[in-house]
# Entry
Amino acid sequence: MIQQKNLEAAIDRWRKVLGAARVLTQPSTIKRYCRNTAGAERRVSAVLQPESLTEIEALVRVAGEYKLPLYPISTGHNWGYGSASPVTDDAVIVDLSRLSGIDDSEIELGLITVEPGVTQGILRDFLDQHGHPFLVPVHGGGPNCSLVGNALERGYGIPASPDDTTAGARLCRHGRPGLPPTRDRTADHADQPVRTLL
Ligand SMILES: Cc1cc2nc3c(=O)[nH]c(=O)nc-3n(C[C@H](O)[C@H](O)[C@H](O)COP(=O)(O)OP(=O)(O)OC[C@H]3O[C@@H](n4cnc5c(N)ncnc54)[C@H](O)[C@@H]3O)c2cc1C
# Structure
C-alpha cells in the first residue's frame, strides 16, 4: 500500500520535472489507461509522460525516494494480455509513447535502433520515406503497437527465420538483386540482442 502523502509529494516533484500537463492525475484523464481487454480492474495513481531519457532518470529517482511503484508501457496496446494496466493496484504508469526516435545508422547491417514509442506503422513509414528496402516482421496486434513493447512481452509475428519469435527484434530485407535472401541475413544476426535507445 502506498502512502498518500508520499504520492502527493512525488506528484509535486514530477510536475517540476515534466510540467503539469504531462503528469496526469484526474480520474477522467487516466481512465483510458485502466481499460483492460482481459477484464481486470486496476487502480492507477498517476500517469507520467516523459519525452527524454533525462526526464525518465529524474522521475525514477523521485519514485525511489518516495517508494512508489512505477509501471512502464511503450504504447500500452498489449491487447488481451493486460492492455496498459499495471500488474498491481496504485502503480504510477510511465507512458513512453512520446519517445519515438529511430536510428538507422547501421541499416546496411540490417540493424535499426528504436525508442519505445516507435510502432509497427511508424517504422514502416520511416523505411518507406528513407527508401530502405526492408520488411517489418509484423504481428497481428495492429500498426499502433510498439516494437519494443511487443519484444519485451516476448511477442511473435510473421517469423523471418524459424527461431525468430520476436516480431519487433529484427528487420529482414526485400528480395533485391545482389543481397542475400531474408533467411540468410537474419541467421547472420541471430545472436544480436534487441537494441533500443533506453
Ligand atoms: C487481434 C489481436 C492480435 C494480436 N496478435 C498478436 C501477434 O500476432 N503477436 C503478438 O506478439 N501479440 C499479438 N497481440 C497482442 C498485443 O497486441 C501485442 O503483443 C502488442 O504489441 C503489445 O502491446 P505494446 O506493443 O503496446 O506493448 P505495451 O503494452 O506497451 O507493453 C507490453 C508489456 O511490456 C512492458 N514494457 C513495455 N515497454 C517497456 C519498457 N520500455 N521497459 C520495460 N517494460 C516495458 C509493459 O509493462 C507490458 O507488460 C494481438 C492482440 C490482438 C487483440
